[in-house]
Structures are given as structure tokens and as C-alpha cells.
Amino acid sequence: MRKDKEPYKILVIEDNLGDFILVSDFLEETILAPEVVHAPDFKQAVEKLTTTKEQENYSAVFLDLSLPDKSGEGLIIDILQLAKKTPVIVLTGYTDASFATKSLSLGASDYLLKDELTATTLYKSLIYNIERFKTLTRLKESELRYSDLFHLSPQPMWVLAMEDYRFLDVNEAAINHFGYSKEEFMSMTLYDITQEKYFGIFECRMADQESMDSDFSSLVQLQVKSGKWIDAEINCNLLLFNGIKAEVVLANDVTERLTHLNIIQEQNRRLKDIAFEQSHVVRAPLSRMMGLINLIKTTQISPKEELIQLLDYIERSAYEIDDIIREIVRKTENLKQEGDL
């Protein structure tokens, strides 16, 4: 049989020397060079686990439920508290089988019946629970990072239940921005703060949860506690929240941005009007002036009264151009005063 070459360091908390030797022998059958540490009672187990360096180096802890100086639920709880970074596997006899099952609910990774113990079952339990513990640790770290990102985000965020869009959690930024207390949020659904014309968006997602995109964004209008409606860009992502199908939503208030865009659009419209006047309205009197000047240059005009009349037409066109230019300047100045240019 090929032996596992990984450098396992295992703490066995067992008062029965024969059982300890049996566990050690089984481990040596499947692992090339296991480092097996023995603690015959609770006091020595505490000593082995209270040194930070030692605790971090243990691959796993095998725990007998009945020690001379401690046993039962209190023993489980204390060892789990000491071995926070290590999977704890309970070793028990048949008489303790019911409590061994309960130990799983207390946080133990697994339990093995001593009378059914073999080298193979011991090794499989060891490997499985080491990997499972690593996975659970990564998951907890990921959940903690998510919690930090959620609650410390400067943007309003909340978690909604997919079945009815009730609020399951909100961050501090949402409470501050929208004005509702957390208790008020928890008593409401998203429908309570959304314009009715947007209800169809959420109802479609509720009805088609299986095929809908995990990422979703939309522009909606939401109501703050003061009664004011704001424009908000919501970005939604699916997640499982405490066993409930849910969405985490980031609500970005874009009211000012949209207002600014509307101002820019109005500015562009008015600039187009000015451009039209420059390119069309000015052209009419200018064309008349150029035509009259060309007529004077190329034609022998007499009597003098006709020449004076032509010059009068030119003068009127010049005044008309002057009025147009003044109107363009006035409109441009108005835009400047309004802060649009």
C-alpha cells in the first residue's frame, strides 16, 4: 500500500493508552511519517493547544469524549474554542454514539466509533475533514469579506428576498442616504419605495428566476423618507443569503448626474439655435448687401436718387445684421450667466 507523504501533525487527546497506540498504528499504516502528539487529559490538551505556534501546526485533532478531568459537552466546547484553526474529530465508544452525533451540532468536524475503527476509515476521515475544514474556512473568510464590503461600502446597498423583494439587510450608507431606519427597511419591500411604473421589472425577475441573468441593472425612481423621488441606477447580483434566494443591490443615486445631462441637452439645443441664426438668419441680409454692392459696382446708376436709394437698402441690411449679432451676443451672455458655458 502506497503511503501518504504529506507531513501531518496530529494531536490525539485520549486517556486510554491502548486506544492512543491503536490510533497511532493506524495512522502509520497510511501515512509515511505522521507526527502524532499525545495528550492523556484535558489539562495537557490545553497546554498543547494554547501555544499559538503549536496550534497552527496541527493538521487535525482526535478527541476522546471522556477524559479523567473533563468530559461531555463542556469538553467539546472548550477544545473547539482552543482549536479554532484545526478540524476536531471525535473518537467514541458505542455508549457515547448519541452524544457524538450531538457533537457535530456543536462544531466537531466528524465522529468515529472506536469499535469500528480501521486504518482506512481513520485515514479517509482525516483527509476528508482536513480538506472540508479548509473549504469552510475559505467560505467563512469570503463571507466576512463580503460582509465588510457590504457594510463598509460608501454606496447604498441592500439584500432582497427574490420571492417577494422584502428587505433582508441594508448597509449604513443606505440608511443615511434614504433616511429610513434599519427597522423601517426590514418592515418594507422594494415596492414600497419604488415608482409603480417600474414594478414590471421586478415581477418579471421574480417569475423567471431560473433563466434570468445573475447580473442585472436598470434605471428606476426610488423614494427617500422625506417623500422626494430620486433617480437611481440599480445593479443586482444573485446570491444565497442565509439559505434564501436573494439579490444584493447597489443603488447609485444619479439624480444630479441626470439633471446635469438635461442641462447639457438644453444648452446644446440653445447653441443649435444660435448656430442656425449665424448660418441662416445672418445670410439673408448679408446676401442682399452683397447683391446691392455688386449692382453699384457693375452698373451705371443714375439719377443720383436711385443710388441713394440703393445705399439706403445697404444701410438697412447692415442694421439688420447688427441687430442679429446683438441678439446672438445676448443669448450667449445669458448662457454664460446661467453657468452653462
TrEMBL record:
Name listed for the protein in its UniProt record: Histidine kinase response regulator hybrid protein
One MF term in the entry's GO annotations: phosphorelay sensor kinase activity
Domain PAS: 142-197
Stored InterPro entries: CheY-like_superfamily, HisK_dim/P_sf, PAS, PAS-like_dom_sf, Sig_transdc_resp-reg_receiver, TCS_response_regulator
NCBIfam families for the chain: sensory_box (TIGR00229)
Boundaries of every Response regulatory domain copy: 9-129
Coiled coil: none
